[in-house]
Amino acid sequence: MLTVAAAGAAAAGVGCVLPQQVLAKVGANEKIGVCVVGIGGRGWGSHCKEWLSDPRTEIRYLCDPDSTKEAKCDEIAKKQGGVRPKFVTDMREAFDDAAVDVVSNASSNHWHALCGVWAMQAKKHCYLEKPICHNVHEGRALVAAALKYKMCCQVGTQCRSNPSNINAVKFIHEGGIGEVKFARGLCYRRRKSIGPLGNYEVPKTVNYDIWSGPAPILPLTRPKFHYDWHWQRVYGNGDLGNQGPHQTDIARWHLGIDRFPNSVITWGGRLGYDVENKDPNFVDAGDTGNIETTVYDYGDKCIVFETYGLDTADVLGAKVGVISYGSKGYLVQSSYGYSAAFDLDGNKTQEFKGDGNHFCNFLDAVVAGDPSLLNSDALCGHLSAGLSHIGNISYYLGEKNKVSVAELKEQVKQIKSLDDNVATLDRIVEKTEAYGVDLKRTPFSIGPLLKFDPETETFPDNEDAAAMVTREYRSPFVVPKPEDV
C-alpha cells in the first residue's frame, strides 16, 4: 500500500513544487517506503541523499551483493530518526515486502532492466539509472511492463527536469536558431586505463552469483571490481552507453525526434593506454571503445555522438554536452544546468540556467499515481539508451576491421550525414596523434553501416547485428520478452 509524507511546505524545501493533484493526495504522517538497489557512488551519493532529503520518503531497504555496504544502514538510521533500513543482497526479498513502494536502482548496467521489470511486476514504482537497459530488447520490456502494470518508471536522465534544458528546448522549437536538423553529442571525458587484463580474485564480501545476475559468471579480468565494469561490455556499455544516454537524449529533444534512426555506423577504437603506461605491449582490461564516432541517420535529420576518452580540448565550449546547429545560429548545452545560444558569427544571444530535481518529479508522479507527469519515462529512456546500444553493435561488429587513416577517410566520405564527416575525422585524428598514439601501429576500425527498422527495433539485413539486440540470459535472471512481462 502506497503511503506518502505530509508536507506541502516541507517539500518546497527540497526544491519541489507539487501540483495540486499531488498535494490533494498527501496524507499526514505517512511515508513512501524506498528500496535502494546498488550502494556505490551513485546509489549512496545521489539516490540515498535525495530520499533522505525529501520528507515524503523513508529508506526501508538497502540492497547490494557486497555485504560491506550494510554499514551504510547505520549511517542512514542516524539521518532518518533512528529508523534503520534492512539490508539484503537479493532484491527480490525487498520486492516481496509491502512496506516498499518505490525501488531506486543505481546498480551495474546489466541489472537495470530486470530490476525494473521485477519491481513493476511486484507493483513497485521504480527510478532506474541510465542506461535504462543493457540492450534494446530490455528497454522495450521495461516500456511494456510500465504500461501493463500502470507504474511510474523514471529514467535517470535528469537533464529532462532542468529548467535550463526545458527553456532551451522551447527556444529551439520556437525557431530561436532557425531550422534545426543536426545535433552533435559530446563525451570528451578523460578515462584512464582500468589496469592490465589479467585474472583477479572476486572480493570475498561479494555474492558473485547475484552480482552477475543476467550475465554469465565469468572470471574477473579487471583489477578494480566496482565501477570499472563500465568498460567491459558484458556488464557495461562504455562511455557511449554511460554518458551517451544523457547527450543523445538531449539531442533527440532538441531535434524533436521520438523514434529510432534509419541507420547507424560507428568508427573508432580503444587506444592510447599503451602510451599512458609507456608500454607498447600493454593490454587494458577494458573492451569497450574509448574513442568512437557514431552517426545516426534519421532521413531529414541527423545525430552524431563523439566519445573521446583521452586528454582533449572542448568543441565550441563543450566537453560533455550537445551542440545543435540551426540555420540562424547554434545552441550549446555545456553542463546539466547551462545552455547558451549563439548567432552564426559566434555571438552569444541568450543563456539558459537552472538545475531541477528529477527525483522530486518522480515522487510527484508516484503520489499522483500518474505516469504522465514523469519528465523521462521508460519509453524516453529506452529510445536514448537504445541509440548507445545500436552504436556499440556497429563498433563491436567492425572492431577487427582495422583501416589506415587514408582508408577511413575514403569510407567516412560515403556515410550519409549532415555533419562534415571528413572534418570530424581530421579533428579526432589530429588530437589522437598529438596524444602520442601511432595510428599506423594501432589503427582505428570501422563498423558496418547497419540499417535499422524503427518499428520492429531490429536490424533487418544483418543477422549478427540482430542477434545483439538481446543476449542469452542465465536462469533465473531472465529479462522476459515484452509480451511476457
Task: Look at the helices and sheets and give the structural class.
Answer: alpha/beta
Number of domains: 2
Major sheet details: 10 strands, mixed
Which superfamily, in CATH terms, is the homologous superfamily of the largest domain? Dihydrodipicolinate Reductase, domain 2
Helix content: 25-40%
What number is the mean pLDDT? 94
CATH topology type of the largest domain: Dihydrodipicolinate Reductase, domain 2
CATH class of the largest domain: Alpha Beta
CATH architecture of the largest domain: 2-Layer Sandwich
User: Uncertain regions: pLDDT < 50 for 5+ in a row?
Assistant: 1-15, 17-28
Overall 3D shape: globular
Describe what you observe in this structure.
The protein has 485 residues and is of the alpha/beta class. The chain folds into two domains: 8-158, 3-Layer(aba) Sandwich (Rossmann fold), CATH 3.40.50.720; 161-355 and 379-484, Dihydrodipicolinate Reductase, domain 2, CATH 3.30.360. The chain contains 17 helices and 16 strands. Strands 7, 8, 9, 10, 11, 12, 13, 14, 15 and 16 form a ten-stranded mixed sheet that branches. The chain has a six-stranded parallel sheet with strand order 3-2-1-4-5-6, sandwiched between helices. Helix 8 packs parallel to helix 11 (244-255) and helix 11 packs across helix 14. The longest helix has 21 residues, at 378-398. The chain starts with 7 loop residues before the first helix and ends in an 18-residue tail after the last helix. Residues 1-15 and 17-28 have low confidence and may be disordered.
